[in-house]
Amino acid sequence: MTGTQLPLVFDAPLRGKAPKHWLDLTPDERVDATQRLGLPRFRADQISRHVFDRLEDDVERFTDLPAAIRDDLGAQLFPRLLEQVTQRTADAGATVKTLWRLHDGSLLESVLMRYPGRSTLCISSQAGCGMACPFCATGQGGLQRNLSQAEITIQALAANQMLASGVVPGASGRLNNIVFMGMGEPLANYKAVMGAIRTLLAPTPEGFGMSARGITVSTVGLVPKIQQLTTEGLPLTLAVSLHAPDDELRDEIVPINTRWKVGEVVDAAWEYARVTKRRVSIEYAMMRDINDQVQRAELLAQVLKKRGDWGWVHVNLIPLNPTPGSKWTASRKADERAFMQTLERRGVPVTLRDTRGSEIDGACGQLAATVRE
């Protein structure tokens, strides 16, 4: 893409490094940290039960611990990581977008959505994003820094606290699903994201006890990291933001394609499906007169079919959400239908995503972490 700098890909420096938190630690590291505070090892289990069973991260509520040690515990292992700046709602309160400020002033957003019988959190893995996709508000803002494992995980803790406190009307229980589709490219912050995922999956009291099938990791196509994810032995859902079936267009709208081409990305996704037995989601944002032509639907079907029968993949069409000052806009409904029908005629499993939160800039591609007056 002429004039566009190739994005920084893997593990950007953690500028303004977050202080160490209980949520950064493995179960064994929690025991060690507890003992370094002069406490017996059983206290680690007590602390974890507060966090993962009771959803408490205020040490003053850990009343089964001696009051004399709570200050040290709070200062050393429970620093305040997120401060709520604003909270906006849509869909009669079923969608809640929270703007958070981190300890160094960096901003990020997460979106909590209630559906019938389930709750989903769209979680951020970076403050900003370095992938530079021109139709995405997050990408156009650039990358500030990676989030730490705890800064990622605590978004899930905060969402569970919201559900428990009744912030989302009609919601009950805990998060069922987490989608790494917020700010940032998750696989560019691989170590922290995988650490957060393992904490989300660990049974209580060592983690939140979620199901791997309830966690989706999205990527624009960082092939080596998709290959690494394939070896993790976790049946997560992989979502690949493809947005174009041909290299000429994808080079322009997804700049990382200049490094790993469509064929390489789809091959890596197919191998992930083969190894994990989990169907891959192909994300395709519909952009008017850019990528929504019937011939591109035909080409997309050809690209996907080349890798095997349709059991390995599902196409998720996304109406492009508006972003301030952008020349990119959503497809016409007629073009959207024709694209979808073309895929259906070819036998490609396809759905049109139900867009949530667009009026509060909380939908796909709209997260810009902007403070509104």
Automatic annotation (TrEMBL):
SUPFAM superfamilies: Radical SAM enzymes (SSF102114). Keywords: 4Fe-4S, Cytoplasm, Disulfide bond, Iron, Iron-sulfur, Metal-binding, Methyltransferase, rRNA processing, S-adenosyl-L-methionine, Transferase, tRNA processing. It is an enzyme of class 2 (transferase). One of its GO terms (molecular function) is metal ion binding. [4Fe-4S] cluster binds at C129, C133, C136. Its EC number is 2.1.1.192. One of its GO terms (biological process) is tRNA methylation. InterPro entries: Aldolase_TIM (IPR013785), Methyltransferase_A (IPR040072), RNA_MTrfase_RlmN (IPR027492), rRNA_lsu_MTrfase_RlmN/Cfr (IPR004383), rSAM (IPR007197), rSAM_sf (IPR058240). Binds 1 [4Fe-4S] cluster. The cluster is coordinated with 3 cysteines and an exchangeable S-adenosyl-L-methionine. It is found in: Cytoplasm. S-adenosyl-L-methionine binds at G184, E185, S218, S241, L242, H243, N321. Its cofactor is [4Fe-4S] cluster. GO terms for cellular component: cytoplasm. It catalyses: adenosine(2503) in 23S rRNA + 2 reduced [2Fe-2S]-[ferredoxin] + 2 S-adenosyl-L-methionine = 2-methyladenosine(2503) in 23S rRNA + 5'-deoxyadenosine + L-methionine + 2 oxidized [2Fe-2S]-[ferredoxin] + S-adenosyl-L-homocysteine; adenosine(37) in tRNA + 2 reduced [2Fe-2S]-[ferredoxin] + 2 S-adenosyl-L-methionine = 2-methyladenosine(37) in tRNA + 5'-deoxyadenosine + L-methionine + 2 oxidized [2Fe-2S]-[ferredoxin] + S-adenosyl-L-homocysteine. The active site is at E109 (proton acceptor), C364 (s-methylcysteine intermediate). Reaction proceeds by a ping-pong mechanism involving intermediate methylation of a conserved cysteine residue. Specifically methylates position 2 of adenine 2503 in 23S rRNA and position 2 of adenine 37 in tRNAs. Belongs to the radical SAM superfamily. RlmN family. This is Probable dual-specificity RNA methyltransferase RlmN. It comes from Tessaracoccus lapidicaptus.
